[in-house]
Amino acid sequence: MPYSTGVKLVLLAALLWSLNGLLIRQIDQAGTWAVLFWRSAGMIPVLLAVIWWRSGQVVAPLRRVGWSGLVGGLGLVLAFGGAIFAFQATTVANAVFLFSASPFLAALMGWLILRETVRPATWGAIALAAVGMFLMVREGLASGALAGNVAALLSALGFASFTIALRWGKLADMLPAVVIGGVLSMLAAGLVLAAQGDTLWVPGRDIAISLSMGAAILATGMALYTAGSRVIPAAELTLLSMVEVLLAPVWVFLALGETASAGTFTGGAVLMAAVAFNALSGARRRPPAPVLGVGN
Prior knowledge:
The protein is mainly alpha-helical. The chain is built from 13 helices and no strands. Keywords: Membrane, Transmembrane, Transmembrane helix.
């Protein structure tokens, strides 16, 4: 695949993912767990079709992920559920800026769990990112959106856990592990709803939006990102994926007039600067195999 085609695929994936917040804003009654169930239900068939199209098999690729795929799938339950709650409980800008902390959390977890070396420049970027996150969480506390901000950070932690699980298992293909994460998400959502005495049968419009998010936004974006990432260095992937973070607040502003506070954008700008600095400082190094981006 030519490099230019890879860039287009990754940018298209980021564009699709940037619509998640806007679509969740269209849901009227369904709560986090119902949205998680139906979004996962829409995602799984599309990813299975992509896996079959690429390898001619379905069961074997799922088996190959082993324990690392299961651990990564559990991380995705936290990532997906936290992202949905964050979009419902805070501004889209708050949520997507905090999602972008995932690479730094992954670096810390890799250092602690896998004994991976962290570059001095990355330590500096982590410190800068911590300042940005502090500004945003403080803003959330002041505006009554602390729960949404915490959920966004937990979502970033879930994606970081998924990343570490893939590195631990040395898995180059993330899609089978994402399928497992979708299945586990459906199980977790069903159990929580049953324990709460709630139902999956929310209004049909909410179900349709959730299914479309899973199939057309999340799964299709992951398939495009995975294909494009094969010819793009990880540092450039990080920068291209920032398109999602930059566009998501734009869509909700244009469609719904939703804005965020100056504190949110100040903290977000600091966090984005940390992400960009870390990516650019590592551009000349041979990076590890690319994994899932910010898409939620």
